[in-house]
Structure formats: structure tokens, C-alpha cells
Amino acid sequence: MNIESRIASILKTSSLDVSITDLPTFNLSDLNISTDLDIKLPTNLRLGHLAEMIVGELIKSSSNYKVLYENVQLIIDKKTIGEIDFILSDLKTTQVIHMELAYKFYLFDPTISSEPINNWIGPNRNDSLIQKLEKVKSKQFPLLYHNCAQSMLTGIEIDNISQVLCLLASLYIPFEYSGSFSPNYEKSIKGYYLNIEKFVGLDHSDKEYYLPTKVEWGMDPFENQNWSDFFGVEENLNKSIMEKQAPLCWQKHKDSYSTFFVVWW
């Protein structure tokens, strides 16, 4: 995995804003990054932890924010009750900020509801955007006011901390979907999804494919050097579908690239 490309992909991912989340938004584009990044990343991190580490290093390298605390685990009677992602300081305003971070991939299922906010689900249908927002509101943000947190965040006035969400989202819509989305969703749409039957029936001539590993999700297919024809990915694709795991697929067709999920449902 190319570290520079992985970092660039995180920076390019848009945060879902307050008009969608109903929560104050933190945008990575607000960071004034003044130095070349030299981040050493462990090879065994899961995607969410990888994104968290990269964002932490981006903030530390910026000239306008400072990380005061990160990954604060709240433990009572040897049991972890939660974790606070970041406590930051805005160096210009001196405002202290509690920031929760998420790096997510959601697919739009128009059959769920007439309200778009309810229709964004995980590729395997086991999580959703609305569930994530409820968790932030009801569990993650309130952790700041737990007695355990107040004893750990020394030198900080808890009541003066603002809370923000940095929800980095890559959104995918149904193949050949004709519906429209508000600009706030549109900026995060990265591709489409289709089921295995539809995908197999497409014309695969002159097209090359690659199934990125989970830690490569969100990266630019243009950077990839390993491509094969449809038959080169068919076995692994079918295996994922049999295991009810929806893989992300990159496609190269001449000089154009696209990303999409192949779903089992």
C-alpha cells in the first residue's frame, strides 16, 4: 500500500456536514498542513484505526490545531466503557474541541424509506448512517461528561469544550440510478453498487479489474498497478458473495477508472 496515496485519499474524502448529520462538522480541509508528512503506519491496522491514526498525524502536522488528547479510553473496574477520539485546541481561537471521527462507506437503498437519511447502509447491511449518528449523539458525545473523563482530561474545563463530528463518508448509489441527491450528499458519492448477477452479465471486454483489500478502500484506482481481466477476479468475487461479504471493485476501461460494490443481497 502506498502510504502517500492512502493519506491523500483521507484528505480528499468529504465530511458529511451539519445539514445531514444535525451535528457540528469538522472538515480536514480546515487544517493548515505546513510540512511534508512522514507517517509510519503499522501494517496490521484495521481501516478505521488506520484512518484515525492518519487524521491524528494530519492534525499534529497542522499549524492551526493542536492535539491535546487522543484515544482516551475510559475504564471503570477494569472495563472499558468507551473512548474519546480527540481533544483538540484551535490555536487561533484557543477553543478546545472534542472531535469524534468516523471513516465510513455507505450504500443508498431507496426501498427502505422515503427519507434519504434512513437509506444509507453499510455494504453488508449490518450498519447504517442513521445508527452511527444516533450512537454519536447518545453514547460518544456524552462520554465527555462522564466522571471518568473529567478525571483524565486534566487542565481542561469540560463545560467549555465544543463537540464536533468528522464523518468522512464515501457514498455509493444503485447502478444506473436515476434519482437525484442534494449537493451535500452529491459531493460524497464515489460510485455505484450492483448485485453479482447484474455484474456478471455486463460486457467485460476491454475492461480490467482489481479487488482492493479493506485497508485500500477509498484510495484512487488510478494509483493501482495490479489489474486482471474479469476471469482473474471471478473466483475471489464469488467467494466473497458466498460468505455474504460485499467486496469493493475497481475497474479500468482504457483511460477511465470507476469504483463500485458488488453486493450479495
Provide an overview of this structure.
With 265 residues, the protein is an alpha/beta fold. The protein has 2 domains: 3-172, no CATH class; 191-263, no CATH class. Helices cover 26% and strands 29% of the residues. It contains 8 helices and 9 strands. Strands 1, 2, 3, 4, 5, 6, 7, 8 and 9 form a 9-stranded mixed β-sheet that branches. The protein is globular and about 65 Å long. The model has no long low-confidence stretch (mean pLDDT 94).
Task: Give the helices and strands, then pairings.
Layout: H1 3-12, H2 18-21, H3 47-61, E1 65-76, E2 79-90, E3 96-108, E4 120-121, H4 129-140, H5 147-152, E5 162-174, H6 183-186, E6 189-195, H7 196-200, E7 207-210, H8 230-242, E8 248-253, E9 256-263
Parallel strand pairs: 3-5, 5-6, 6-9
Antiparallel strand pairs: 1-2, 2-3, 3-4, 7-8, 8-9
